[in-house]
Automatic annotation (TrEMBL):
Protein name: ATP synthase epsilon chain
HAMAP family hit by this protein: ATP_synth_epsil_bac
Coiled-coil annotated spans: none
Source organism of the structure: Halalkalibacter suaedae
Description of how the protein assembles with itself and partners: F-type ATPases have 2 components, CF(1) - the catalytic core - and CF(0) - the membrane proton channel. CF(1) has five subunits: alpha(3), beta(3), gamma(1), delta(1), epsilon(1). CF(0) has three main subunits: a, b and c.
Pfam families listed in its UniProt record: ATP-synt_DE (PF00401), ATP-synt_DE_N (PF02823)
Primary site of residence: membrane
Recorded family membership: Belongs to the ATPase epsilon chain family.
Keyword line: ATP synthesis, Cell membrane, CF(1), Hydrogen ion transport, Ion transport, Membrane, Transport
């Protein structure tokens, strides 16, 4: 038995397929979902969605949003989401460098510091998912 997973962003559908198991990173921690899971909605943080099929695991980089779980279907509504093949590694490396600089420079301004930290987390997440 499998579960259907959809990953949708404001720009369109990033993934639609049947998997054995999917895990997402919610604000409360990692959530592993098997077919027949109870229905729930949870907010997502910056992290990797892991799609397990047999012995293979595909990853999607997600930058926050919501997961809606139903017994036969998981819908991930993401602010941004990329498959490894869709990740521009140079762009993520540049974003990481930029964010690291801002994190170290903006210690006094809490909002700018927080924003830079989130940009840094998005860049690191993309690099992790891309495998680079
Ligand atoms: P950047 O500073 O490089 O724009 P960001 O983290 O601020 O990075 P987001 O606001 O999360 O970017 O995303 C804006 C759009 O750009 C989204 O559609 C996202 O999928 C896309 N995107 C961002 N970074 C990358 C990347 N490294 N490779 C491919 N697409 C990316």
């Amino acid at each position: 038995m499998q579960i259907n997973v959809n990953v949708v962003t404001p720009d369109g559908k990033v993934y639609d397929g049947d998997v054995d198991m999917v895990s997402v990173v919610t604000t409360e921690g990692e959530l592993g979902i098997l077919p027949r899971h109870i229905s729930l909605v949870a907010p997502l943080t910056i992290g990797a969605v892991r799609l397990k099929k047999g012995t293979t695991v595909e990853k999607v980089a997600v930058s926050g949003g919501f997961v809606e779980v139903r017994p036969d279907q998981v819908t991930i509504l993401a602010e941004a989401a990329e498959l490894p093949s869709g990740i521009d590694v140079d762009r993520a490396r540049q974003a990481k460098e930029r964010a690291e600089k801002r994190v170290s420079e903006n210690k006094a301004d809490e909002i700018d510091h927080k924003r830079a930290e989130l940009a840094l987390r998005r860049a690191i997440n993309r690099l992790n998912v891309s495998g680079k």
